[in-house]
Design brief:
The protein is α/β, with parallel strands linked by helices. It has two domains: about 35 residues, no CATH class; about 190 residues, Rossmann fold (3-Layer(aba) Sandwich), CATH 3.40.50.2020. It is about 40% helix and about 15% strand. The N and C termini lie far apart (about 45 Å).
Length: about 230
């Protein structure tokens, strides 16, 4: 009764359409769930996410859960996660993708899940890393270890959308560093982020991780630009 009263004055909102959720719904309403553009990339290892990194990163596997279109439903979903502090979106998508990846032998080999890190200033201002919940749920479903203290962002960077990819990669390569590298030695790593656009950030992070002794690398993201 108290729960119903709370929902009357502070209703839970769908993170895709901003309409009130029904009692049985969580994070995303049933209508929007059926509208989400799923990629199905983990069924085909020669997919668009993996091809973004052809000639750039030697990947074992790569996948993205959703297609991202400008002004589309997925953009609104990720915007709510990052800028309206709807952390439950991250865990929700991680559970969803994790359950699917756990059925695929290629992804079952991942021993560690590593999130793309935020600089401490951004982490302090935002209050959370939007990728953390996603990564933790993936680790749980894959029976892997969540590790966020090896790949570290050492300096804040401004958006570099107007720079060429090569120039941006050069800046990003100097932005990340590796600490406690022994934690990841001789292991298959699953590097995760929210969105693949040019792939520059994931490329810079992946190259740092592959400097660790005897590592293999896969990538998983919430979405990819379409």
């Amino acid at each position: 009764m108290f729960h119903d009263l709370i929902n009357l004055f502070y209703p839970k909102i769908c993170n895709c359409c901003d309409k009130p959720l029904l009692k049985a719904e969580d994070v995303i309403c049933t209508i929007c769930l059926h509208k989400l553009p799923l990629t199905g990339y983990h069924y085909d290892n020669e997919n668009a996410t993996k091809k973004v990194f052809d000639g750039r990163l030697p990947l074992e596997n790569a996948t993205s859960l959703l297609y991202f279109n400008k002004k589309g439903i997925v953009q609104h979903l990720i915007h709510n996660l990052k800028y309206k502090k709807q952390e439950e979106v991250s865990s929700f998508l991680g559970t969803w993708l994790g359950e699917e990846l756990s059925q695929h032998p290629r992804f079952q080999k991942a021993a560690c899940v590593v999130p793309v890190p935020l600089h401490r200033n951004k982490l302090k201002s935002r209050g959370f890393n939007q990728v953390a919940g996603f990564a933790k749920e993936l680790a749980k479903k894959l029976d892997a270890e969540y590790i966020d203290d090896v790949l570290v962002k050492k300096s804040a960077t401004r958006t570099q959308t107007l720079k060429k990819r090569v120039g941006r990669w050069g800046l990003l390569e100097e932005t990340f560093r590796i600490e406690n590298r022994e934690k990841l030695e001789n292991r298959h790593l699953l590097l995760v982020d929210d969105l693949v656009t040019t792939g520059a950030t994931l490329e810079a992070c992946g190259n740092k991780l592959l400097q660790i002794k005897n590592t293999k690398l896969s990538i998983a993201t919430m979405a990819i630009t379409h």
